[in-house]
Amino acid sequence: MVNFSVMIGFFIYLAGMLFLGIYLAKFNKTNEDFLLGGRKLSSWVLALSERASGESAWLLLGMTGAAMTVGFGEIWTALGCILGILFSWFFIAGPLRGAVGVSESLTIPDYFSEKFDDGGFSVRLISTLVIILAYFFYVAAQFNGAGKVLNVTFGIPQFWGIVIGASVIILYTMLGGFFAVAWTDVVQGIIMFLTLIILPIIGFIEIAQSNANILAPMQEAGQHLTSFLSGKTGWAAIAFVLGGLSWGFGYMGQPHLLIRFLALKNEKEAKKGRIVAAAWTIPAFIGAFLIGIVGIGLHGSTTFLDDPEKLLPTLAIDLLPLLIAGIFISGAIAAMMSTADSQLIVMTSSLTEDIMTKLLNMKLSQKQLVMWSRVFTVILGAASFIFAVFAKELVFNIVSYAWSILGAGMGPVILLSLYWKKLTKAGVLTSLITGTLATLIWKNVAALEGIISHRFAAFIISITLTIIVSILTSKKSKVEA
Predict the structure, then answer these.
(1) Is residue 227 part of a domain?
(2) What are the tens digits of pLDDT across the range 36-47?
(3) What value, to the nearest 5°, has the Cα angle with vertex 468 and ends 466 and 469?
(4) HSE of 153 in the Cβ direction (CA atoms, 13 Å)?
(5) Secondary structure (DSSP) of 213-279
(6) Residue (of 328, 301, 320) closest to 68 by Cα position
(7) Residue 192: CB partners within 8 Å, gap ≥ 6?
(8) 178 burial class (0-12, 13-18, 19+ CB within 10 angstroms)?
(9) By C-alpha distance, which of 308, 335, 339, 333 is closest to 9?
(10) How far apart are CA 22 and CA 32, in angstroms?
(11) How many domains would you assign to the chain?
């Protein structure tokens, strides 16, 4: 039975998150406050919030478990993510905030629609549907991860772990909106960072004190674990590397990250935020990778757990004083909360701003919009909870679906809208539809997935067709004019 100290540390964290949600509820006077914090938050708060939101249960549970299973080859995923994050902060954040400076769009579908469809129907509707589809998977993955952590830590059945995690996330998001999301993300981002830095250091110290050779158990578990190419050669090795690096494509198309850029006070604030983002990202991803390696080194096996995604909470309990372990295990819960809350806000904003206000042209007061935002937060959270209960796949795999849908569907539109003047409405629709369908088809056809990762294939197919369709429709528009 887990020591009572672990439970105390964990519930101190949960109580703090709920307190912030309740306290910050009073700041939500308008729907802009609820969805973007009124664009009043500083760049360092938004940068930490973006990082905490970007790295969910996928990083602390999924990537650590994948590193233990794959070994050194998982470094390509870490590198791809680092490059993707840095690219977004250096080349997307500032230009995107500048691009919405005139319209002051509150959502990504609003930005797409105003820029390419004169505020019309089709682009707004399709982009909203893509977001809700992807985040339905994504939020469910976070709830599922919460169930795993609470099961390992306290022996709570996974179903009730999902109930607890989902309830806390939905409650403070519904109450505090973006203010609560951003400030809880700051706390969660710090806890996540400390977890990912301190835990592998303690693990390596433990290995050194036992005079163990960390490579020996990796070689015994499988020679591929010590290979940066996972023992592959030829095209299989190239595809393996590209598959890992392709995670970086996704960052350009994640609305729960992009709205942090929209929430910046102005374009110049992005330069300050990128420093904080880089300082968090590089050590955190290296730490997540090393936790998987430490797991093999300490236990001499990749199969000592029934589920590799339970590695982080298991190591925390084994290596740390129990009160500290409770707080650090909260880092895994923090990862889920900081992502799920942001995604709930994005789905909610799509329904209130893009569907109710813009498409249905409903005349609602700011107070009514905030009320409906809270109602939709609860409804969408409940729907994702139901899916999480029945989901059988690993968090890593579920997130990969959603990540690719958004990365391939919205990423090309974001990139080209900022750096290519020939992008057309038809090109935008092509990207949204192609990125989604390519992901769903490629991921579910084993022969295709065996050639190259669906994340890489879907993005390349989507951006290529988007450019071709835009060139063709751009010429057609000129002829008609």
Answers:
(1) yes
(2) 555 666 778 888
(3) 65
(4) 31
(5) -THHHHHHH-GGGG-TTTT--HHHHHHHHHHHHGGGGGGGG-HHHHHHHHTSSSTTHHHHHHHHHHH
(6) 301
(7) 52, 55, 59, 60, 284, 331, 334, 335, 338
(8) buried
(9) 333
(10) 18
(11) 1
Domain of 80, in residue numbers: 4-393
The answer to whether residue 197 sits within a structural domain is yes
Q: What is the CATH number of the domain that holds 50?
A: 1.20.1730.10
Q: Distances in Å between the alpha carbon of 142 and those of 41, 268, 309, 372, 389? A: 26, 33, 12, 24, 11
Q: Could you tell me the end-to-end alpha-carbon distance of the chain, in angstroms, rounded to an integer? A: 74
In whole numbers, what is the pLDDT of the chain averaged over residues?
80
Residue 412 within any structural domain of the chain: no
Q: Is 90 domain-assigned?
A: yes
**pTM of the predicted protein model:** 0.82
List, in order, residues 6 or more apart from 414 with CB less than 8 Å away.
92, 96, 108, 252, 253, 258
| Alpha carbons 400 and 137: distance in angstroms, whole number | 10
Query: For 371, what's the count of Cα atoms within 13 Å in the CB-facing half-sphere?
Result: 5
Quote the DSSP letter at residue 25.
G
pLDDT tens by residue, 66-96: 888 888 889 999 999 999 999 999 999 989 9
Neighbours of 437 (CB within 10 A): 16
Q: Which residues contact 238 (CB under 8 A, 6 or more apart)?
A: none
Residue 459: count of CB within 10 angstroms of its CB: 27
Residue 358 has pLDDT above 80, yes or no: no
Q: How far apart are CA 150 and CA 169, in angstroms?
A: 15
